[in-house]
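Example 9 (inverse folding). The structure is encoded as follows.
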């Protein structure tokens, strides 16, 4: 009996050593990306300087501009006397990076450069990340005041630039929708309007939001949409939301706005200007005001990545931008004028069910 226990001990010790060694290598390899630190920070609210250096990255069009100190990532305070400002400012909100390998600092930068490659229109950019991966609800001081912090930033920059463009996907798209009434143009891909509707795996691996704080997102998104739709903003504002029609996760989020779904939710009529299937040539693609929702024939939550691979992302963004800039309007594809239909039918159905259940999965939108 003693020998059997001894042999078992000899077998267990190497296995434990291999597991611990593998965990050490994994942590070491991903430390630079913030994979584990950001998740740990989300649950503990412990601040890590290594992550805070990635919270905000300012990229001026004028490379010689020294008006922003390099160590101001955690709290960017714009220099009101800066003479190097471009007419356009992009504010990019990165999505959750837990599943795809760490905190990304300059999400959307490649697309911005491609959009402006043949356009005589310089742009500045601020790239935001959320070190705690909690829907930007935490401010840099790690208090639950992130919503006010980012809205104040957008509001301030909107007074300094001719055009402020917000863009983000998933978790980042949530903040875009919460601040859209303060910007010129806002583009959100697969935004999460209610974190509670996320499945447990996403809440553990992707993003963390306490149930007690989630209502702030729901309430602010509705208020923002209502202000834009009712034209109660200080200037023209437009919000474009793109969802994957065949994604169950996106269906749950979309049903909060367009109605229907498993619980037959009512449509928020006061929040939305139009709801339709994605059509690059539709006049609303370059609308200068209102809240427009587009559904794509895609089953992936990472819709923007899918559109980029199919070479549809840049034309889509260019159409949205054409409403905010004469320069973009001159190079955008000409959009045919056509009458709007009185109604659009958006099919948010899951895979085919029985006839009586399938009929409930359709959402009828009367415009």
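The amino acid assigned to each position is listed next.
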């Amino acid at each position: 009996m003693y020998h059997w226990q001894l042999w078992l001990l000899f077998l267990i010790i190497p296995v434990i050593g291999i597991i611990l060694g593998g965990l050490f290598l994994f942590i070491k390899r991903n430390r630079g990306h913030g994979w584990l630190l950001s998740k740990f920070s989300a649950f503990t609210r412990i601040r890590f300087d290594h992550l805070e250096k990635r919270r905000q990255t300012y990229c001026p069009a004028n490379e010689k501009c020294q008006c922003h100190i390099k160590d101001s990532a955690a709290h960017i305070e714009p220099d009101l006397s800066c003479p190097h400002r471009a007419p356009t400012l992009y504010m990019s909100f990165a999505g959750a990076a837990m599943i795809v390998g760490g905190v990304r600092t300059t999400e959307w930068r490649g697309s911005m450069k491609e959009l402006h490659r043949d356009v005589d229109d310089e742009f500045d950019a601020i790239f935001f990340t959320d070190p705690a991966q909690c829907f930007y609800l935490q401010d840099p001081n790690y208090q639950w005041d992130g919503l006010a912090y980012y809205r104040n930033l957008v509001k301030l920059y909107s007074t300094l630039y001719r055009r402020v463009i917000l863009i983000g996907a998933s978790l980042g798209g949530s903040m875009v929708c919460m601040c859209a009434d303060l910007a010129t143009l806002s583009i959100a891909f697969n935004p999460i309007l209610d974190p509670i509707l996320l499945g447990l795996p996403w809440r553990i691996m992707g993003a963390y939001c306490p149930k007690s704080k989630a209502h702030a997102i729901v309430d602010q998104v509705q208020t923002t949409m209502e202000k834009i739709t009712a034209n109660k903003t200080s200037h023209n504002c437009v919000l474009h939301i793109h969802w994957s029609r065949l994604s169950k996760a996106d269906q749950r989020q979309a049903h909060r706005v367009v109605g229907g779904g498993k619980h037959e939710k009512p449509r928020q009529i006061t929040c939305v200007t139009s709801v339709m299937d994605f059509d690059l040539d539709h006049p609303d693609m370059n609308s200068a005001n209102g809240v427009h929702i587009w559904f794509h024939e895609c089953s992936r939550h990472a819709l923007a990545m899918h559109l980029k691979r199919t070479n549809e992302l840049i034309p889509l963004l260019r159409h949205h931008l054409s409403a905010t800039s004469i320069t973009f309007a001159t190079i955008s594809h000409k959009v045919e004028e056509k009458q709007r239909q009185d109604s659009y039918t958006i099919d948010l159905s899951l895979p085919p069910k029985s006839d009586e259940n399938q009929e409930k999965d359709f959402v009828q939108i009367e415009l």
